[in-house]
From TrEMBL:
Membrane-spanning ranges: 138-158, 248-268
UniProt KW Membrane keyword: yes
Lineage: Eukaryota, Fungi, Dikarya, Ascomycota, Pezizomycotina
Protein name per Swiss-Prot or TrEMBL: P-loop containing nucleoside triphosphate hydrolase protein
Annotated source species: Fusarium pseudocircinatum
Keywords, ordered alphabetically: Membrane, Transmembrane, Transmembrane helix
Amino acid sequence: MEKLFYPLNPPDRRRIPGKQMHVLCLGLSRSGTDSLRSALMILGYSDVYHGFVITARQREDCAFWVPLMRRKLHDPTNFQEAIDFDSVLANCEAVTDGPANVFGEELMSYYPNAKVILNRRRDVDAWYASMKKTCLEVFSWPMWILSWFDTSICWLWWNFELVMKDYYRGDFDQYGKQVSEEHYKRLEERLADDQRPYLDWSVEDGWEPLCEFLGKPVPGVPFPDGNKGGGQFQENMEEATKDIVMNALRNMGVCSALVLSIVLGLAYTCR
């Protein structure tokens, strides 16, 4: 049904020879992902993948992530498949934020030579409050209504539902903190089993441990102060989705006018 009414083809990218995935930042959203993305770009990594990349530019990526997340989150016991992550991440040298962080174990298998960072917010209560004030407020019922009138918003909405709702067992209020703990514990256990070194990192740690782990010199600039909560997050989202929101509003206006015309026509006919 979705392919009929909201068609969107997934990307089919191919990695440039010599360009590799160097860094996997597998922490949850609102754990310094935007600051970390900016920091990695300052350190010379190109095309650092982040949720805002999908929202603002590469909306077709949702057609890759959404079906994959549905299979993993809705039928996890049978989720055993080879995933070609390069078809969506081929241009990238680093990745952070959702929806990629839903596939931490799979990404580690696919990119065995990439360095792993578990970025986290050590104050879980602060992380929980930040999620509530940002991600979970932006994608509310007005955006759901608009999703009926624009293909990109529709797919972004499905992407959000899976990353921010289904991943947290359908109820972030009740399970958010528990799922956060399980997320990091599961990755830590996998890293230990693989005897794979990783960096446990928080924004407060700044440049030094990050650069030491990545083998990079410390830049002579302040550590990036990324996507703060509240108003700034809202402004960033509005700017990223401005074009598709306007398209949805136009389509909504056309549909409303059409429905009104039909109603008035029927009323006139039935007089």
